[in-house]
Fold Serine aminopeptidase S33 domain-containing protein.
Amino acid sequence: MQADGSVKYDEEYILNPQGQRLFTCRWLPVEREPKALVFLCHGYALESSTCMKGAGTRLATAGYAAYSMDYKGHGKSCGLLGYIDSFDDIVTDYLHYVTSIVDKSENKGRKKFLLGESAGGALALLIHGRQSEYWDGAILAAPMCKIAEEVTPNAMVVWVIKMLANIIPTWGIVPIPQDLVEASFRDPRIRENPNCYKGRPRLKTALELVRAGLEVEQGLPQVSLPFLVVHGGGDIVTDISASKMLFEIAGSTDKSLKMYPGMWHSLIYGEMPENLDIVFADIIAWLDERTAPIIPASLEVEIS
């Protein structure tokens, strides 16, 4: 356990339903009850303890309990780094983790939010798809509803990938036009993180990401929870039109979209501090509006 002023940080390994070891961490406000629980979903090839540190610290400082988990094949969790055998398994593992936190006696009745970036945004939407009435809202940063054409292999390459993935699924040989790490993160400290996968996408991983993105896109009309979408105007990794499509198509009655001109793909942990300040001011304001105590009308009259 580490305490730094108003924030307490903890790490813990848990077992998923298959008995595999997964890394988790949390940032908690000190000497105050959390306003709500926020579950952080990191992007493909990334991890929690470093990449989500800024987000977790900012949220805990603002009074929220923030939780994150490294998926299998990511960060400090088990599995081959950068390899996704099944995106469905990631959804199942994350739901198992969420339940273990929410069911604790001290968390009974607390509101629950998801915060996901890129592939983590896709994960958040798929989690909502399995638990449509469970969540109180979500913040989606450049969610992977559709992969940008600039980093999508052409149709012939995709066909070859499908064939090879059945034979050599773990091989990292998928050609992409852009260096995803260089194109995603303006902050060099994130680029240099040794717990992040920096090689070419593995064959099965690429197919699972495409499949997950298609599943998310097909399910957009059924999205019903309150959500805030944030997207950088300079993003060349996740298609900006997909965030606009999510905003327009989703069935939610409480939905917001904020664009940040000149910012890159990673608004949660890859931008420079001054840009993160801007983004998180909006995120925390959105959360505060949805966690503020409801004052009865009669009491408002008495107070006034």
